[in-house]
Amino acid sequence: MAGVFENYERQYCELSANLTKKCRAATLVDGEQKKQRLSEAKVGLDEAETLIRKMDTEARSLQPNVRAVLLAKLREYKSDLNNLKSEVKRIASTNLNQAARDELLESGMADAKMVSANQRERLLMSTEKLNKSSDRVRESRRTMLETEDLGVSILSDLHQQRQALLHADNTVCSVNNLDATWGG
After folding, report:
1. Of 34, 56, 103, 168, which alpha carbon lies 20 to 30 A from 152's?
2. 73-118 pLDDT, tens per residue?
């Protein structure tokens, strides 16, 4: 069930990390190299969008209690993807006067990077909490299944004991009837 979602999630996290690296690399180069890195980043963004759609579809197919947790996680991923898209657009829109522009926007970009780092940190913490919750759910499910098996076993034993008592009762009744018939 949620294993498919977790697989997509792992792929998305790896892809997001790679896209972040490609964005950083694109800011360090110019000309054709920059175009190539941006092209690779755009392909990665398309793949990330596809993974987000798959995660959304998978999450919506699960039980409501699991679905709610996964959809909350998915909102974080969508926000992360939008940040990555914005970063790629920002890098792509740089003009010839890049040095002057960077100087003017340097303080704003530092704030944006700090916000992005904070969002990633919150995302990682949320992911860790969700993983712990998933582990607790799996453990609870395992305990529930063990309890159910024990209940079935007890009911089976009680059924066998009932059958034995009914057989003993029938035997006693038969003996009583024989005694009554033989005049004893």
Report:
1. 168
2. 999 999 999 999 999 888 888 643 454 555 666 656 666 677 788 8
